[in-house]
Specification:
two-stranded parallel ribbon, single chain, two-stranded antiparallel ribbon, globular, mainly alpha
Amino acid sequence: MGEVVTTMVFYWGLMLMSYFLMQNGMWIINDVVKSMCRFALGKALGPAIDFVEGREGSASKTWMMQGMFWLILASLFTFEGLWLAYDPHALHSLSSWGYNPTSESLLYAAGFATMYGGVGMLIVASSFHIIPKLADTELASERNGTLVSYLWTLSVLFAVIAAHDSVILGINIFLIATGLHGLAFLAVLINLLLTISERKSALPMPGWLIMLGMLADPISVAASVLGGIESGSVQWLLGHLVTGTFFFATLAGISLYVSSSATGNPLWSRSLTAVTTVGVIATLTPMGYTDGRMAADLLLTTVEDVSMQSTDGIAVAFLMALAIVPVITLVANVMMTLRGGDAFVENPDSAGVPEINLGVSMLLPLAVASLFVQSDTLSHSPELLGISSTLVLMVGWLVMVPLSLGAAQHLFPSVTGRNLLSANRSRWAFWMMGWGAFFGLAITMMADIAQIEAAADSTGIMSGKVRVVGAILFYGTTIGAIMHTLNALSGLYRGKPVSEGRATSTSIARDDYSLTTPTSVRRILAGGAHLDTTVVPVGESDEPGAPTDLH
């Protein structure tokens, strides 16, 4: 238990130190560090930086579109993996090209494409837009943000290739993927840190959630090194800290921002936001893989080394159980903020809001289910391992993808200056993706349970017939991902331009509200006011205007 607790203590201490430094700077060396970082983002890249666009919003737009394209590939890999679980020889003809995919390799590749390609890139795209808005400043380097997106995409591509065959021509492909991903992530983090260092106002809590989630990757690695990274328990912990905290914390902050921005309502509870922020850092998210294979490959170690000892499992199970608290507070806060304006009922065409509703609605039940599966895995005789892989797919396609894709769709007009091409197509794509993922994966889980009960193989009569139905239904998710991507791509060129004078709400809360005409309390609250907002009466006159006297 000492290794896990020691690593977590280092992790918490480094997180608190990072928060303190972001709040107060680095004293006399602050300007020197900022100048070096700006040089690294721009001039250090040489002529390559001049080949990308540097207009406002260009970085966020590039990440957004690449993330949507990755969702298409991720859904295709997932569909093929589910189908090959029913018919292992369905793609046998590809062997003549030297490609011999299996259900396991396709689903493993789909994990990288979904989480790092689709969800990860959409998270960075939203962060590049949200953090400058909340900080009342501009992104430190739009050019660097745009250029690094291609490096991130290349790292995901190598990870997908390595998921099929990790060693090609004697070279460990995961080593290349990890190196490229580390460079890209470091550039993204420096860009965001420089942005908040130039903030002109206090950063609201959702912004801190996003930043702490971004910092989780490097800080967890540093904490693991200090706690003893050679230990299998620490390696298992590192995998869950990196994937769980990064994805959950950043999506929590993005969802809180979008729920307020989409409806014009202030966040329902600032106290719950604070609990969510502290909770995601102090606990261990149960959602994710149970075997640690992805973490082992990215850490360039063996799966057997990434194991949790029985004594360490007690501390881990306790931290995962506590993680349900920030999940509950996040769900309640987002739900009540959205329902404050009846966003889903009164404005069903609001792009992204239905996806946010779906993701938040599925978050709590899937988090509880993941807690049971993770706790069962830590026992001496696990009985639920058969459904763990399908549960990970459900978390990805019913929580992570809807939250990240919904946020991207809502921010699309603000980022690109144009609306999505068709609200009707967006609505149809939502139903295709949502129902396809829900029913397809639910039926696949039924097949897993039937296989556990009957102790039959994957080609058994009962399990096989159920699996093929689940794979067919999940194909709707692939169609929905294609429709979403085409809708956004067409919107870049043929979407209705956003008027420059449009009224938008991007504030989490307002400190003052100018009252020029009689209005209702509901309208004041919808404008972002809260109980501590100062209402400022502004005088008006009905007298006709006249030329200004310059004497």
